[in-house]
Amino acid sequence: MAKQLKYDVATVLERGTQATIEDWYNHVEEEPNLVAIPLSLEQRCAHLPEIFRDLVQRLRKPLPLGSHALVSTAAADHGRLRRDQGYTAAMMVEESRMLQVSIFQTLQANVEDIEPGVLLKHVMAIADEVDSQLAQAMANYIVEAKVDKQPIKP
Question: Which is it for the CA torsion 131, 121, 60, 52, positive or negative?
C-alpha cells in the first residue's frame, strides 16, 4: 500500500482558501447582526484572500508566538472599510471569530493529510496571526472614528 503524502498546514490552507472563505461567508450570512449591514459577497470577502496569503506566509516563516506579527495593509484597509460600511467593533470581532472557526474546520477536515507533530504549533500561530490582524484592523477602525469626531476645517 502506498504511503499517503502529508502536507504542512500552510499548504492545506493555501489549497483550501476558497472553500474556507465560502464557509466563512455562509456563517456570516446566518448571523443577523452582521447581515444587518447589507454587503455583496465581494464586499464582504474582499480582504480575505490577502489575509490568507499573510497566514500562509506566517506559517512558512514562523515568528515567536505573541511577537508583533506581520504588518498587514489588508487588515488596516479592512478596519477603515468596515468603519465606513457601518460595522461596530463587536461586529468586527465576530467576523474574526468566525474566520478562526472556519480555518479550524478546514484543518479538522484535512487533519489526516497534515504532517504529524505540527498541527498544534500551527494552530497557535494561526490564532496569533488572526488576532494580530484583528488588532491592526481595529486600530485603523478607531483612527477613523477619531477622525470622524474632528471638526471640519475650512
Answer: negative
Per-residue model confidence as pLDDT tens digits over 118-149: 889 999 999 999 999 999 999 988 876 555 55
**Is 88 contained in some domain?**
yes
pTM equals 0.86
Grid cell digits, residue 104: 479550524
Residue 80 lies in a domain: yes
Is residue 3, in this structure, part of any structural domain at all?
A: no
Q: Which CATH number goes with the domain that contains 60?
A: 1.10.490.10
Measured between its terminal Cα atoms, the distance across the chain in Å is 77
Q: What is the residue type of 106? A: T
- For the record, the C-alpha cell of 146 comes out as 477619531
What residue numbers bound the domain in which 58 lies? Answer: 9-147
